[in-house]
Design goal:
The chain has about 190 residues and is mostly helical. The chain has a single domain, classed as Clp, N-terminal domain (Double Clp-N motif), CATH 1.10.1780.10. The longest helix is centred in the N-terminal third of the chain and has 17 residues.
């Protein structure tokens, strides 16, 4: 599938690996893909992230990711579902951190792969890349661009999509920023 990626999409993927390395993460996540897209200049996705004001709110998004890691990676929907059955995630996080230290649910962010430079992609990150292919094909595009990766990040439920939506970047708003009003009505890839 990588052969179908444009230069910009390849740069987004390799940039995600760089972000994972800098963070000392064992694997490349959806968050790393988004951070890499936010770093890009001059591509279609960079136009959309600037138009939506995401580059100006990067610190806020990184803070939201840190808070989600602190909750053990639970999405808002997960926390709400647990609240619906009487489980208060905030209370559990406080108790775990009280016993084991702040950030205990975030897991060890330090790499255990000291012997290898290879960082695998998580199932979620792989799913984003697969979804970007479906988004591209759904739009009638032959190649996968970084804009397709950005759209896939908004379309796949999870922490990254939650954070993007909280910052005004939904599938519809990103699609409008990328393609204008004429971009709507295209079949949303499933």
């Amino acid at each position: 599938m990588f052969e179908r990626f444009t230069k910009g999409a390849r740069a987004a993927v390799t940039g995600a690996v760089t972000h994972a390395e800098r963070a000392g993460a064992d694997s490349v996540t959806e968050e790393h893909l988004l951070l890499s897209l936010l770093d890009q200049k001059g591509g279609r996705s960079s136009f959309a992230v600037v138009a939506l004001g995401l580059t100006d709110r990067r610190a806020s998004m990184e803070s939201a990711f840190a808070e989600a890691r602190r909750r053990g990676g639970l999405t808002k929907a997960d926390a709400e579902a647990l609240a619906g059955i009487g489980i208060d995630v905030t209370e559990i996080v406080a108790k775990v951190e009280g016993a084991h230290g702040e950030g205990a649910l975030a897991g060890d962010r330090r790499s255990r792969r000291w012997w290898s430079a290879h960082r695998p992609f998580t199932a979620g990150a792989k799913g984003i890349l697969e979804k970007s292919l479906r988004v591209a094909l759904g739009r009638g595009d032959r190649f996968i661009g970084e804009e397709h990766v950005l759209l896939a990040l908004t379309a796949c439920p999870g922490v990254v999509a939650d954070v993007l939506a909280d910052h005004g970047a939904t599938y519809a708003t990103v699609e409008r920023a990328l393609y204008g009003a004429g971009g709507e009505g295209q079949a949303r890839a499933s």
